């Protein structure tokens, strides 16, 4: 990727480009893994019986041999302090340890690190078509919904599209006329491929009501809504049997199997096939497979157990066995690996892609090999009794584009990494070598403002920057860059009369019913002149980290001034979606103003 002006300013020559190196608690690197530096979960030593062998200044590897010694690698880093500042602005230099042009994929050599992608991609389903893997995730009220990602090695992923182009099931998804749909919308859904027709299917139950079915012949799209089924396929998994019959397993505690009509768009019949006993309790998250002649329903007991149901018939009877309970996660401070799905490689090896609760960043995917026993049940290949922080690659490593870098909004459409908060007003934005946002809502409330554009934050720590042209703002307009969740803050431009201020606004909160409890207030600010500003957020979304965001701005793109006391990031789960970067422009008095975003950049800190 060609470095933009902004990237050249961010990527200081003195930064050591050791990708994904963090400060944290000591962790053990697994056999053949990179070691001796700062890994995802902290400084790394090798497991017993393996030695950290120095290769070069950038790479050491755990090789079999005498234990207890580690060749250390010293890395010097300079980062923005995690603590906030007062309302006085101070100049801050930012150095980073990542460059999109230097990206060589997850991990080193033939070893990958968990998580495979530190992005909020929950309720996942993963499938293989030939030698290509596809991944689908939930998105609640973000639009377009149900992102589709692609990989050639199960580890390095790229966004390619969305299965749900617009959330058209109810007017509340437009975030208009006082309606809103926070925490509603797309939850765990079915996703699969039917080889006989070359068709991809996505289906989701919306608000415990009907199930909507979408199809595409290309997973990148276009996708089309094809039918409505008057049954809620809650937490559903799709199975296409050897004879091409399509089944869906779904439900919570009471698990049902539905047989679909021949086109896969309607329900032919449905039956209860298994009821969770009191010894197990509540269970959900169904995924459906046929493996070695057995029908397998994969279920989760939120959020610390995974169960396997097995039968010789899709209709049962099913016997159950627990796959895991309270398994140590590969990320410090995160939850137990659970839910997700299983997938095989072309050579017949099986892997389990689970997710872990890693708030405030959300729920992120982790991968581990599994082995099938002669009894027809799987086991997870653990490392020291836990989910490994690294494993050998499932297949030959194939890096894709870096999960960070700069978007200049070239062309006339947004990339598939972007999602709006609710459906956008398409008449109020345009993409043409920059993103123009016209005010779409008159409101003092960020949560009620249409056309807030969001981007997942790459963990563990990222720095996001936008270049904002604000010369066409009107009196009462607010535009800027936000840490967006049910407790939010932003840095941006406030226009009041003829006065223009750079503002840090905090205390923006929702209540437990996802209604706005507070629209926030300016915690710090100053007069600003000109028409262009660089807005920056440094976000530490590690569950075991500082969980803070700091905010800064620049008028020249080089020297950044801290503003405000920062934001402590909530790490509870009830909102489900993790923090995102948000770009917004709304009016508090009247419509008619606009801003242009020249570029967005995200780099690892």
Automatic annotation (TrEMBL):
Region (Disordered), start-end ranges: 73-106
Signal peptide: 1-27
Pfam family, one: GH43_C2
UniProt-listed SUPFAM superfamilies: Arabinanase/levansucrase/invertase (SSF75005), Cellulose-binding domain (SSF57180), Concanavalin A-like lectins/glucanases (SSF49899)
Keywords: Glycosidase, Hydrolase, Signal
CBM1 domain location: 27-63
GO biological process: carbohydrate metabolic process
A GO CC term attached to the entry: extracellular region
The protein, known as: CBM1 domain-containing protein
Source organism of the structure: Arthrobotrys conoides
């Amino acid at each position: 990727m060609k470095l933009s002006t902004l990237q050249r300013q961010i990527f200081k020559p003195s930064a050591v480009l050791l990708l994904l190196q963090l400060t944290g608690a000591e962790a053990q690197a697994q056999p053949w893994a990179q070691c001796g530096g700062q890994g995802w979960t902290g400084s790394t030593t090798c497991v017993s019986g393996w030695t950290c062998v120095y290769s070069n200044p950038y790479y050491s590897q755990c090789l079999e041999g005498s234990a207890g010694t580690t060749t250390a690698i010293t890395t010097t880093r300079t980062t923005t302090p995690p603590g906030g500042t007062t309302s006085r602005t101070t100049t801050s230099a930012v150095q980073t340890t990542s460059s999109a042009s230097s990206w060589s994929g997850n991990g080193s050599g033939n070893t990958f690190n968990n998580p495979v992608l530190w992005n909020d991609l929950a309720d996942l389903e993963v499938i293989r078509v030939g030698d290509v893997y596809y991944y689908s995730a939930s998105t609640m009220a973000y639009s377009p919904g149900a992102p589709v990602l692609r990989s050639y090695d199960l580890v390095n992923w790229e966004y390619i599209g969305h299965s749900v182009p617009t959330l058209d099931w109810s007017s509340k998804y437009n975030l208009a006329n006082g309606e809103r749909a926070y925490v509603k919308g797309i939850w765990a859904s079915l996703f699969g491929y039917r080889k006989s027709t070359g068709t991809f299917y996505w289906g989701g139950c919306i608000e415990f009501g009907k199930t909507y079915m979408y199809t595409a012949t290309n997973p990148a799209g276009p996708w089309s809504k094809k039918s409505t089924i008057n049954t809620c396929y809650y937490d559903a998994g799709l199975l296409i049997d050897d004879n091409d019959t399509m089944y869906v397993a779904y439900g919570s505690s009471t698990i049902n199997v539905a047989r679909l009509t021949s086109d896969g768009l309607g329900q032919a019949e449905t039956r209860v096939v298994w009821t969770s006993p009191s010894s197990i309790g509540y269970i959900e998250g169904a995924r459906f497979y046929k493996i070695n002649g057995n029908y397998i329903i994969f279920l989760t007991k939120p959020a610390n157990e995974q169960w396997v149901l097995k039968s010789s018939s899709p209709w049962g009877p099913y016997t159950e066995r627990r796959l895991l309970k309270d398994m140590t996660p590969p990320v410090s401070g995160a939850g137990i690996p659970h839910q997700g799905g299983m997938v095989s490689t072309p050579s017949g090896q099986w892997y389990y892609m689970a997710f872990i609760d890693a708030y405030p960043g959300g729920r992120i995917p982790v991968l581990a090999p599994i082995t099938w026993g002669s009894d027809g049940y799987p086991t997870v290949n653990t490392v020291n009794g836990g989910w490994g922080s690294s494993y050998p690659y499932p297949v030959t490593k194939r890096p894709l584009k870096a999960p960070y870098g700069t978007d200049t909004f070239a062309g006339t459409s947004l990339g598939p990494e972007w999602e709006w908060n609710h459906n956008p007003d398409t008449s109020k934005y345009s993409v043409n070598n920059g993103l123009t946002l016209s005010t779409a809502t008159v409101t003092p409330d960020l949560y009620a403002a249409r056309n807030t554009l969001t981007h997942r934050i790459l963990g563990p720590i990222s720095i996001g920057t936008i270049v904002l042209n604000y010369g066409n703002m009107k009196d009462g307009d607010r535009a800027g860059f936000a840490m967006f969740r049910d407790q939010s803050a932003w840095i941006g431009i406030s226009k009041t009369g003829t006065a223009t201020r750079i503002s840090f606004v905090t205390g923006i909160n929702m209540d437990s019913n996802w209604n706005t409890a507070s629209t926030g207030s300016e915690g710090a600010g100053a007069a600003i002149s000109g028409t262009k500003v660089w807005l920056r957020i440094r976000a530490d979304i590690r569950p075991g980290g500082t969980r803070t965001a700091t905010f800064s701005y620049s008028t020249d793109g080089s020297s950044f001034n801290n503003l405000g006391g920062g934001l402590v990031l909530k790490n509870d789960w009830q909102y489900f979606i993790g923090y995102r970067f948000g770009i917004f422009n709304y009016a508090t008095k009247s419509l008619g103003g606009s801003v242009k975003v020249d570029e967005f950049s995200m780099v690892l800190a």
